[in-house]
Amino acid sequence: MKAKNKDVLSSFWSHVSYVSGTYDTPDGFVKLNEKIEELEKAHGSEKRFRLFYLALPPSVFIPVCTQLKHNCWLASKNKSLGKFTNLFNSECRVIVEKPFGRDLDTSNELSQAITALFNEMEIYRIDHYLGKEMVLNLMILRFGNELFRSVWNRERIACVVITFKEPFGTYGRGGYFDTNGIVRDVMQNHLLQILCLVAMERPVSVDASDIRDEKVKVLKFIKPLDLDDVVLGQYVGNPDGKTEDSKLGYRDDPGVPNDSKTATYACAKLQIDNDRWAGVPFIMKCGKAMNERKAEIRIQFRDTPSDIFGGNCQRNELVIRVQPNEAVYCKMNVKSPGMTFAAEESELNLTYHERFEDIDLPDAYERLILDFILGTQTNFVRTDELAEAWRIFTPLLHKLDAGAKCPVDYPYGSRGVAAADEFIRASGFKFSGTYKWKADKK
Predict the structure, then answer these.
(1) Annotated catalytic, 190?
(2) What residues contact residue 340 under an 8 Å CB cut-off, 6+ apart?
(3) 32-79, pLDDT tens digit by residue?
(4) pTM for the full model?
């Protein structure tokens, strides 16, 4: 922790109280309400806001929300209507953490139960990837720069690859992970949200409803995934690994069944069947126990027609690096320095910590909790958006749950499943291997 934040943290802890109770009985919630009222009176605030953050398993969402509504919720008065209502100027809001169900049916069941208690303006479904600096940057990058407007389509873009890699496995939380898998844990939410921001049309405004309307429209153009659309993997121990964890495979976790078929790596191809993107593959890759920590969006443009440089020019790529070392860079072909007239790859590079040296980028949760306090819903998931996301993935997930496709082994610390590289190439992505972006060039 930075020294300048220690006093802030100490002040924060001085305001923290603890109230115990069970999820499904009113006693604890009555005590919670009494404690809140005590604090509200102590602060003498005329305007009361109650913000509830539910970091809970989905199995208790409904009973907790029910108890909150009955015992802790405030009615708010709408002056224009002259009556008490919860539809406008709400004084209470609730954040719900993922997972939002396991499939379309369970998600709809949760949504119906929660929306029966609260209106959409009071519900904040949090996906922390929507609070990351470079994900938020997508809106301004796309719609604030004229140079991208005419090339952001199927005529100029050959392929889009969205990647999420973690260099550690699931040891210690394998029991939880085994009930979900990498597709539910990462792909259906984090990566699909990024896809929406890359592919959506220009919204009417930056208002939350306008942005989320366009995200829903994109999702409606995507067909449900099937088994042929994915490559799956499960990591095994690497005997040459440098740490004890790296020598353990996924099924070595005591919480994971010995015969588990849960994928820890997935690569999927989605197609958006609209005028802008028809025929452009959107590849999503995510995995645990990989060779590096990285999340990025890679937009690869089509080949230069009639190449006069002997086929030495590689495809241009616009890369938005989400983490670590936040950056935006464009791979391009330039003349090699010196007397030669050969082409080589270089980049136009905006690395955030080099360009904005004195800026501390806020944590994603920090940013989203502030949005929650301010009542800004732009970076939270709406009910219809959630339903469309589950529509795309539910048929595939049901087949995977039934064991219709088994994951392929890959070593801890590797790039993942080798077959995924061929899958991506066959989908239209060209990997040249002639260039690697380097951070920290100073």
Answers:
(1) yes
(2) none
(3) 999 998 888 888 777 788 999 998 888 899 999 999 999 999 875 444
(4) 0.89
Residue 330: strand, helix, or coil: strand
**The pLDDT of residue 125:** 93
Residue that the structure tokens 């890679």 belong to: 298
Measured CA to CA, the distance from residue 132 to residue 136 in angstroms comes to: 6
- Per annotation, catalytic residue among 15, 190, 353, 398: 190
Strand partners, 299: 160, 318
CB-based burial label for 229 (10 Å; 0-12, 13-18, 19+): middle
Strand positions, DSSP E, 212-263: 230-236
Whether the Cβ atoms of residue 177 and residue 262 lie closer than 8 Å to each other:
yes
263: buried, middle or exposed (CB in 10 Å: 19+, 13-18, 0-12)?
buried
C-alpha 93/C-alpha 74 separation (Å) is 10
Dihedral angle computed from the Cα positions of residues 395, 401, 405 and 409, in that order, rounded to the nearest 10 degrees: 130
Element of type H or E holding 350:
strand 343-351
